[in-house]
Amino acid sequence: MLEILLPILIFAALALAAIGAWRRIRLWRQGRPAEVDLLRGLVAMPRRYLVDLHHVVARDKAMSNTHVATAGGFVAAAMLMILVHGLGLANPVLGGLLLAASALMFVGSLFVARRRRNPPARLSKGPWMRLPKSLMAFSLSVFLSTLPTVGVLPADVGSWILALALVAALAWGLGEMFFGMTWGGPMKHAFAGALHLAFHRRPERFSDKQGGTGRSTGLKALNLEDTSAPLGVETPSDFTWNQLLGFDACVQCGRCEAACPAFAAGQPLNPKKLIQDMVVGMAGGSDAAYAGSPYPGKPVGEHAGEPHGPIVARQGTALVDAETLWSCTTCRACVEECPMMIEHVDAIVDMRRFLTLEHGNTPNKGAEVLDNLIATDNPGGFDPGSRLHWAADLNLPLMADVKQADVLLWLGDGAFDMRNQRTLRALVKVLRAAEVEFAVLGNEERDSGDVARRLGDEATFQSLAGRNIATLAKYRFQRIVTCDPHSFHVLGNEYGELGGNYEVRHHTTFIAELYDADRLAFAPWKGGTVTYHDPCYLGRYNGEYEAPRRVLEALGIQLNEMERSGFRSRCCGGGGGAPITDIPGERRIPDMRMNDVKETGAELVAVGCPQCTAMLEGVVDASAEVRDIAELVADALVARPIADAASPARRPVGKTTAEEVF
Amino acid sequence: MRPEQQGIEVAVLVSVGRHPITGRTRRADQDARGLELALGLERQVPGSRVSLLHAGPRSEESEAALRGYLGMAAGAGMAAGAGMGLETLTLLEQAEGSDAIPALVEHLAAAPPQLVITGARAERGEGSGLLPYALAERLGWPLVNGLAAVEKVENGVATLLQALPRGQRRRLKVRLPAIVSVDAAAPAARQSAFGPARRAGLEVGRVAAEPDLALAEWQLAPARKRPKRLKIIKAASARDRFKAAAAKVEGGNGQVLEGVSAEQGAEAIFKLLKEEGILR
Ligand code: SF4
Ligand code: SF4
């Protein structure tokens, strides 16, 4: 009886899964076209899954083992089951393997069940709560119905009732695993996830066999040439098809939610919910079935959308409220944590582009800042001719005069800010101490376009970028050095698409290099305990975690690391134009970050970003002082041990080390 | 019974502005406020239609600035803008240095709107602030300056709120058609959106160009900050200080010198500067 029923069940489930897959694919194909190398993607998919995805999953060891057992067991069991029970290849070897695979899966599902007993708040409930039971039903029933195949039990053992019970359990398991995979159950993540990895919109973010780490964080340019094209994303179907596919891959694990600073601050944003809302929108319907944490302060069930309906309503509610999108600091903590490699920030900026470029609805100070950028090339609306006033006494060499230099020092808009001017002066002092040949653009420099782009104003970004690139093209230099990670990121990662390719260094990286080349010497550190705050645009965006720590170590500082540091660093709240759009929450993000600092007991927090400095210094009653690494270095400078003074002629910089003088 | 309210035709005169710091062209602040007021009319006078009118030379720069106004269509709601005819701007093209007034008069007289809104003063050119008056004179329409709000329009009569110094308001009834001018007391302009601005069309009409003879006689020089009258506050109490801060600068003790020699004039100015403590 089992021999007859099993193949029917298996092939029925497979057929239903195929129909479901076709329907799901139709949903994704509502999106705009995207250029994807389908074949190469499919070929690369196993590596992306086994290496890159597991690199993220493995940050949670228990979960990673659970997933390996369950998913590995399932894939093997499913294949073998089709052979053994579906096609009747009942040989004992295959049967034995099938027993092993389903046993492994069963063990995995026990761990899934344990995790579901007291699930952390970030996990979604709802249908996800039945998943361990479905996994058990599947693995157990496959195991039991395979026993006769290998001859452990006679084929006619037990009664009809027992066999029926087994078939029923198997039907449930098959339903969840095959049918649910393509019809929108929790197992959907396996189907959509595999294809999402293959057709990812940023294929360059995956590692490769040559040891490339794979990093792709620059936003993609909007084509502004095509004047009839709508700008940004208005409806779910305005996303590209592979973005929609990506949303569908979400497992609702809530790692993004746990990492999101805006969510923690009680602002109305939860990246997990946002992705789920896009899934709701792509299929059409309301968010009432969502079973995870809501956007803080926004009850579930009040929003609904459809594939061709607006995501943000001009009046009233639609799928998502505008303030949700404007709460994001673009810190990328969610993207960094997402095991499915979903690109939340891209999606958020896409929707912001529409709100700014088509609605003209950038909240709070947004419109003013954008107008300033258009009229004065800086967000504060300062006279562009006063960009160098802070350096009136420093005699900085201008590119316009010298035409070429080793280093082009990019000042950033911090040049207009009195606090950041102290950092810049410190940096100049350090460069001079190391005898670096540098020059600045001075009044020819413009805002990099970072804030305009992240506020969705791609037009102003491209205008600023285009003019900066034209200015830079006039001069010759080896590399750009800047103390602003936002400029660093934009110049290094986003100008390339517009024709500007440069070697850009953050000042901490450059100082570390100078130190390693023995061009700087420091007095020993006498201050108190220190911790270091990783700026998002330096760390997660550019992978630079080492150099700032290296410099601090060279200064003789032993760091008291914060719990959330390195790639898990918590944003200061200053990115993505968030201080400009200023969406209210229950707490302030910089307050939370200064609290992290306080927990280490540090008396000083070293930073490497003007925005972080401003945000963290703005915290009242802070327990720690905020200093840029450039300032710490400038304070510690001492003459190099065997000074060049010993030798009458100054050797060309960069070719001499202290040792050689001996 | 609700008084009968019908939508009205509103023409907003817009000029090419100039950013006070960088001098780049932009939508002029006051004209943009005028357009904002017009777009807000949808609430008080449903069914109103707004048209944009500019007379001047056409160039890439000026076109970009004018499109800044067209980008305001998207702002506050589909209703405002989309239904109000903001997809185009009528550009009466003239050679550089032509007089805009005859061209505007001719255009407005040919198809008179009920309400013409304009900024009080242009940001480039003569910027004398006389344009609204000259138009009113030639068209024979009433003029209200410093408009803060249009409250309602009934049977061809508009109830307007005029802004006076120090936050005071005066309610006026004006028979339409009329010209109103707005200054910084009017509501600030909404954000201009790039997409709609770029897609909107410019309807270019050629008009006979009369050279602006007055302008030709002018000498243009970069503006300097206007000197402010010094306010020397000698207040003892907080109340006095507050009163002094809120008070209008009194010009009462001014003195008009007529028919005096240059020496006498200089003498008088010198004396004043000493009194004010500017010269010691
Ligand atoms: S978006 Fe990624 S991190 Fe967030 S819940 Fe989904 S799978 Fe998890
Ligand atoms: S980028 Fe940062 S603020 Fe934005 S959703 Fe992700 S975690 Fe939250």
What does this structure look like?
The complex is a heterodimer of chains A (662) and B (280). Chain A is mostly helical and 662 residues long. Chain A has four domains: 2-199; 229-357, Fumarate Reductase Iron-sulfur Protein, Chain B, domain 2, CATH 1.10.1060; 381-512, Rossmann fold (3-Layer(aba) Sandwich); 530-645. Chain A is built from 27 helices and eleven strands. In chain A, the strands form four sheets. Chain A has a four-stranded parallel sheet with strand order 4-3-5-6. In chain A, strands 8-9-10 form a three-stranded parallel sheet. In chain A, strands 1-2 form a two-stranded antiparallel ribbon. In chain A, helix 17 (418-433) links the parallel strand 3 (404-410) and strand 4. Chain A is elongated and about 95 Å long. In chain B, helix 4 (100-110) packs across helix 5. Helices cover 30% and strands 23% of the residues of chain B. Chain B folds into two domains: 3-216, Rossmann fold; 222-280, no CATH class. Chain B has a seven-stranded parallel sheet. Chain B is built from nine helices and twelve strands. The model of chain B is unreliable at 76-83 (pLDDT under 50). Chain B is of the alpha/beta class. Chain A binds chain B through residues 227-228, 230-231, 314-315, 356-362, 366-367, 370-371, 374-376, 381-384, 457, 459, and chain B through 19, 21-22, 24, 26, 71-72, 74-78, 190-196, 198-199. The complex binds iron/sulfur cluster (2 copies). Residues 259-262, 269, 271, 328-334, 344-345 of chain A line the site of one iron/sulfur cluster.
The interface involving the most residues is between:
A-B, 26 and 21 residues
- Helix proportion of chain B: 25-40%
Query: Low-confidence stretches of chain B at least 5 residues in length (pLDDT < 50)?
Result: 76-83
How are the strands ordered across the major sheet of chain A? 4-3-5-6
Fourth CATH level, the homologous superfamily of the largest domain in chain B: HUPs
Q: What average pLDDT do the residues of chain B reach?
A: 85
What overall geometry of chain A do the principal axes of the alpha carbons give?
elongated
CATH class label of the largest domain in chain B: Alpha Beta
CATH topology of the largest domain in chain B: Rossmann fold
Count of DSSP strands of chain B: 12
Which strand order do you get reading across the main beta sheet of chain B?
A: 7-11-6-1-4-5-12
Mean pLDDT of chain A: 91
End-to-end distance of chain A, in Å? 91 Å
Radius of gyration of chain B: 22 Å
Helix content of chain A: 40-55%
Note the beta-strand portion of chain A: 5-15%
Question: Which oligomeric state applies?
Answer: heterodimer
Strand content of chain B: 15-25%
